[in-house]
Amino acid sequence: MCEIFTRQDICVKISHIFLNLQYTKGMLSNVDSLAENVTQKKMLTAMQRVLKPLIRLALAQGINYQMLLETLKTVFVQVAEEDFKLEKRDQTDSRISLLTGIHRKDVRRLREEPENNTPLSLNATFGSQLVGLWISDNNFLDSDGKPKPLERFASDGGEVSFERLVARVSKDIRARPVLDEWLRVGVVYLDDNELVCLNTEAFVPKEGFEEKLFFFQQNIHDHIAATAHNLMNLTPPMLERCVYYDGLTPEGITELKALSENLGMHALKAVNAKAIDLQEKSKDAEDIDNRFTFAMYFYHVKERFGTKLQHEYYRRKTNRIEK
C-alpha cells in the first residue's frame, strides 16, 4: 500500500529530520567538548604533580612566580613557533597568541628577543666522556671490570694513566687542570700511593652546581620528552619503564636501592661500551646528527599527604613493572 503525502506534510517531515540532525550534531559536539575538558583537567592535574619538585627547586634557588612566569611565556612561544606551524605557511604573532593565550604584544616582543642559548657546561660534557671511557675501556679496567686506579702521569703509567685518559678524549685539554677540578668536586680522590681513583661509576659531582645543573636539564628534559611523545601517541613509542611499590620499610628501601644500583650500572656500562664502539664506527658517516639518552634513577620518600599516588589502576596491580 502506497501512502500519499501532501507538499506540506513533506516539508514538515524534512524540517523534523533537519532539527533532529542539528540536535544530534549539537549533542555530539557537547560530548566531544566534555571529553576534551575532562582530558585537559586530567592533564592539568598530572602537570601539577610533575611541577611540584620543580617549584620546590625554584623556591630554594630564589626563583619566584614572576621570574618563572616570564620563562613560561618564552617556552610557550618557542614551542608554538617550532612545533605547531601550519604547512607551507609562516607562523604569525596572531596564531601564536591564539595557540598560547599570550597577548600578541608579548608574543611579538618574545619573538624579537635574541634566544638565550646558554652554552652547556663543557666541564660536564667533557667529564662524561672521560668517565665513560674509564668505565668501559678494558685498558682502564681491572680483572673484576672495575675502573683501575691510575698513575697521574704518562711517564709513570704509560698508556694506562690519567694523563693518557684525558688525551684519549681531547688533545687540547691538559690533565692537570682536569684532575684539580675533579679533586675539588669529589669525582676522584688520591689513594695512599698517589694514584687517581674514581669515586663513583657515574659522573655526579658532590659539589659543582654547574655540572649538576647540566645533567638536571639534560635528563629531566629527555625523560619528559619521551613520556610526552608516548602520551601524544606518536610512533614509534619511546622506551620508558619503571618499577614502583609502596608499603616498604626503610631497610627494604636500602636493599632495593643497592640492587638497583648494581643492576643499573651493569646496563649503563653495556650501553656505554656499545655507544663508544658505534660512535667510532660512524666517524665517516654523513647522517651523524642523532643522539640518545639512556638513564636510570632510584627515588624513594616517606609517604605523606601529597606524595602518595592514588589510582585504582596502580593499587590493583601485582606486577608493577610499568610498560
Your description of this structure?
A hairpin with a 5-residue loop joins strand 1 and strand 2 (about 195-200). This protein has 11 helices and 4 strands; from the N terminus they run ααααααααββαβααβ. The longest helix is centred in the N-terminal third of the chain and has 54 residues, at about 5-60. Helix 2 (about 65-85) crosses helix 4, helix 3 (about 95-100) packs across helix 4 (about 105-110) and helix 7 crosses helix 8. The strands form 2 sheets. A two-stranded antiparallel sheet has the order 1-2. The protein has a two-stranded antiparallel sheet with strand order 3-4. It is globular, with a radius of gyration of 29 Å. It has 3 domains: about 15-110, no CATH class; about 120-235; about 240-320, no CATH class. By secondary structure, the chain is mostly helical. The chain is about 60% helix and about 5% strand. The model has no long low-confidence stretch (mean pLDDT about 80).
- Count structural domains: 3
Secondary-structure element pattern, one letter each? HHHHHHHHEEHEHHE
In total, the number of strands is: 4
Q: Tell me the number of helical segments per DSSP (H or I, 4 or more residues long).
A: 11
Low-confidence stretches: none
Q: Which percent band covers the strand fraction?
A: under 5%
Rounded to the nearest angstrom, the radius of gyration is 29 Å
Characterize the largest beta sheet: strand count, sense, and whether it forms a barrel: 2 strands, antiparallel
